[in-house]
Design goal:
- By secondary structure, the chain is mainly beta.
- It folds into two domains: 195 residues, Collagenase (Catalytic Domain) (3-Layer(aba) Sandwich); 144 residues, Immunoglobulin-like.
- Helices cover 10% and strands 36% of the residues.
- The chain has three helices and 20 strands.
- A seven-stranded mixed sheet has the order 3-2-4-6-5-1-20, covered by helices on one side.
- Helix 1 links the parallel strand 2 and strand 3.
- Helix 1 crosses helix 2.
- The radius of gyration is 22 Å and the shape is globular.
- The protein starts with 5 loop residues before the first strand and ends with a strand.
- The chain binds zinc ion.
- The site of zinc ion has 6 residues, from strand 1 and helix 2.
Length: 357
């Protein structure tokens, strides 16, 4: 049994330098090669923020950037602040959207938004923002630094998937693709920015409900070979006014870069209800590859449209007391979840990630 999913990573940049281009649009949306709009299939997208390396008050500036888009009352879209993170996994498809600060060289790139989407449907599935610390940043509008909220609001526009505009006629818009030091005008949306988010995520266009998955990760995130990770838990909430059936598909992403599907389980959640897993554990075989693993839960509807994704990472270390074989084929020995539920192990599904060219 196998299923392949093509993903494509796209990187949007905001530049310092100024050039002239000719075409003028009110707004532009990202599109697949076949012309489908690239967008999320839910109106609630959570970001975690690692403000390490940013100026003081970066977190509140970033939250203000998110809130500006959320506040558009003709659009249903909401950016949700999920909390702080120590992750620096920018551009990694792990189902966790993050904002980070870090060096990207003095190349004229102020910030980057790296996002993943399905080639076939245009569905966005991961978006990470990074501010380039090779340049000076401030949150006060200081004339000698770039403003976090100003550039952040622009970058969250890419997260929606609005594109850069480069014509001088677009220079007052948040999605104008150039920024200068001391600039704060992108903090507030232009009517064309509002038209863009409203086009992609119109109010009342959501079909009356959503399915969301939440994960409680294990408290032990480092485990020796032969040890057990867990317990961890998951729950799925159905806000529709009718029962919904979904496929719960946990994967392991291994240090070798492989996606291993743990099981596929159809689950029906009653109207307005929540389905909670029992305590889940992963037993690590004694010859597992050491390194960082990701446990990724993807929730699909019965047409295999992705509804939600959650992940946590854990580290497998070598046990000091026993010699290890180099065979890494038996990483996963068992996963126990809801008592009585049937568990299918290692059915061999894979995701294929197509890296950016
Ligand atoms: Zn941009």
């Amino acid at each position: 049994m196998s299923r392949e999913i093509s993903l494509f990573k796209y990187i949007a940049l905001i530049f310092i330098f100024n050039f002239c281009y000719t075409s003028v649009f009110a707004y532009e949306t990202c599109k697949t090669s076949t012309g489908t709009d690239i967008k999320w299939n839910t109106s609630n997208i959570t970001y975690y923020v690692n403000s390490s390396g940013g100026p003081s008050n970066s977190l509140s500036a970033i939250q203000s950037s998110m809130q500006t888009w959320t506040d558009v009352n003709t659009s249903s879209f909401n950016f949700i602040y999920g909390g702080s993170t120590s992750s620096t996994a920018h551009g990694t498809y792990d189902g966790v959207n993050i904002v980070t600060f870090g060096s990207m060289g003095s190349t004229g790139t102020l910030a980057v938004n790296a996002y993943w989407y399905y080639v076939s449907t245009g569905q966005m599935i991961d978006s990470d923002i990074k501010f380039n610390t090779n340049y000076s940043w401030a949150t006060s509008g200081s004339s000698s630094a770039y403003d976090v909220q100003n550039v952040g609001t622009h970058e969250f526009g890419h997260s929606l998937c609005l594109k850069d505009l480069y014509n001088s006629a677009d220079s007052e818009k948040t999605m104008y693709g150039y920024a200068s030091s001391g600039e704060t005008k992108k903090r507030d949306l232009h009517s064309d920015d509002i038209a863009g988010v409203t086009f992609l995520y119109p109010n009342g266009g959501g079909g009356g409900g959503s399915i969301s998955h939440t994960q409680i990760p294990p408290s032990n995130t480092s485990v020796v070979r032969g040890g057990t990770l867990g317990p961890f838990y998951g729950s799925i909430t159905n806000s529709y006014s009718s029962s919904q059936t979904v496929y719960v598909t946990p994967y392991l992403y291994t240090p070798a870069g492989e996606w291993v599907n743990i099981f596929i389980r159809p689950t029906t959640i009653s109207a307005g209800g929540t389905h909670s897993s029992g305590a889940a554990y992963i037993t690590i075989s004694s010859n597992a590859t050491t390194g960082t693993y990701y446990h990724v839960v993807i929730i699909y509807d019965t047409n295999w449209n992705q509804l939600d994704v959650d992940s946590f990472s854990f580290t497998v270390t070598s046990a000091s007391q026993s010699p290890q074989s180099s065979d890494d084929s038996l990483m996963l020995k068992q996963l126990m979840e809801t008592p009585g539920a049937k568990v299918f192990e290692n059915e061999g599904w894979k995701m294929i990630i197509v890296p950016e060219k």
